[in-house]
Structure formats: C-alpha cells, structure tokens
Amino acid sequence: MARKYGGPLSERRKARMRAVVERRQFDLTVVLEDLADPHNAAAVYRSSEAFGLAELHIVAERAIWPGMHPAVTASAHRWVETRRWYDPELCCKGLQDRGFTVLCAALDDDARDYRDVDWTLPTALVLGQEKQGVSPDMLKRADGCVIVPMVGFAQSLNVSVCGGIVLSEALRQRREAGMCEPTWDDQREALFQRWVSREEGLPQSE
Ligand SMILES: C[S@@+](CC[C@H](N)C(=O)[O-])C[C@H]1O[C@@H](n2cnc3c(N)ncnc32)[C@H](O)[C@@H]1O
Q1: Closest Cα to atom 19, ligand 1: which residue?
Q2: Would you tell me which of 7, 55, 86, 146 could form a disulfide with 114, CB atoms 3.0–4.6 Å apart?
Q3: Against a cut of 0.85, is the pTM above it?
C-alpha cells in the first residue's frame, strides 16, 4: 500500500469522507463512565463510529486516561469527536442543556426495555463502569434507565456488547424514520473541513 505524508487528499478520499459525514448522527451519543479497561472503551468507539455517531463523551475521574490504540479501535477514535468530563453530573447537565435525554444502561428494576425507547429523539446513552456500573451521581441526574433483557445465568453483558446492542436498535429506528439518508448542512460542512485539514497534515494511506 502506497503511503505518503501530508498534502492534499485525493478526490476519492474526500468523496469517501463526505459519504460518511452525510450520514453522521449528531443527536445520538454515548457517555462512557470511568471505564477501567481501555479495550472496552476502544470497542465502544469502534461501534459508535460504525453506527455513525459524531461525538462520544468520557467521564473519567482518573488523572490519566489510557491511550486509544489504533489497532484496537480500528482508528475509530479519530472519526468520533471526544468530549471529556471529570464530573458525571456536569456531563449529564451539559447534555441535557443541549436538548439530549440522558438514559443510563443499568440493571435497574425500573429500567425500560431498550426497544421501547424512541431513539429518534436526541439521546445520550450512558454506559457504566465494568464493576460498579453507572455512578449514583449520574443516575440521580439522568432522565431514566434502559435495560437489555437477559434470561441466562450471566448477571450482566460486557459493556461494549451492551452498547452495540442498544446502538443497533437506535440506528434501526433512525433508518426507518429516514434519519440515515445522506444530507448536508453547515454542521456537516464544518466537520468535513475539520477532517480534511487534519488529514492533510497526517500520514495518509490510499
Ligand atoms: C459489566 S456491566 C456492570 C455490572 C455492574 N455490576 C452493575 O451492577 O451495573 C457494565 C455496564 O454495562 C451496561 N450493561 C451491561 N449489561 C446490561 C444490561 N443487560 N442492561 C443494561 N445495561 C447493561 C451497564 O451500563 C453497566 O454499567
């Protein structure tokens, strides 16, 4: 594979980037709350990018967030903009102020079946820590909980699997509602231009 460094992108590459930007879902996002295993976080990035999410939120009390390795995320973290928070309540409020309903994936008795949620509305899905789950602060401030029903011995799903299942349903609903049709607007143009400037300064593969 020929590799060159920086410089103008080919028209083919730009067309590919446009096709992705045209289908980006700006009003569906995921919040990862203090995940301990970077492989889990990387897997969520990968599914989020594949399902067309434009941004992803990380709540991390740790001083250092372990780096995302391109081999694990398949470079997905480069195409999903990350917003980082240190406080779960501020993250939740920040999203609500932008019009998002914040739903926590949680093994809660009052949680709604994820298939009964209207995912065509602006929604943020919170995925909790591998051992402790979603924090009490986030649960207190969020708008509700969703659950992926289980019937086996396992007490929970792997966090990235849970994210993939819920996002798949969200995208199914959005496709049916015509929300995944190619479209272009100022927000998409701005994202496209950011990607082009960044890529033109990076090693590229054709
Ligand atoms: C391994 S689970 C954490 C289990 C933890 N002991 C608890 O009680 O939440 C990691 C995260 O995956 C999500 N999760 C896993 N299985 C789920 C399910 N069946 N329904 C909803 N969320 C689930 C939740 O966000 C959870 O915080």
Answers
A1: 148
A2: 146
A3: yes
Strand-pairing partners, residue 56, are 30, 82
Q: What domain range includes position 161?
A: 26-182
Give how many domains the chain has, as a whole number: 1
- Each residue's pLDDT tens digit, 21-72: 999 999 999 999 988 888 899 999 999 999 999 999 999 875 445 566 565 5
**99: domain CATH number?**
3.40.1280.10
157, 160, 161, 168, best to mutate for ligand 1 pocket (most atoms within 8 Å of CB): 157
Give the separation between CA 24 and CA 199, rounded to whole angstroms. 18
Which residue reads 């995912």 in tokens? 119
Residue 98 counted as domain residue: yes
- List ligand 1's pocket residues with C-beta within 6 A: 105-107, 127-128, 130-131, 133-134, 147-148, 150, 156-157, 159, 162
73-118 residue pLDDT tens: 667 888 999 999 999 999 999 999 999 999 999 999 999 999 999 9
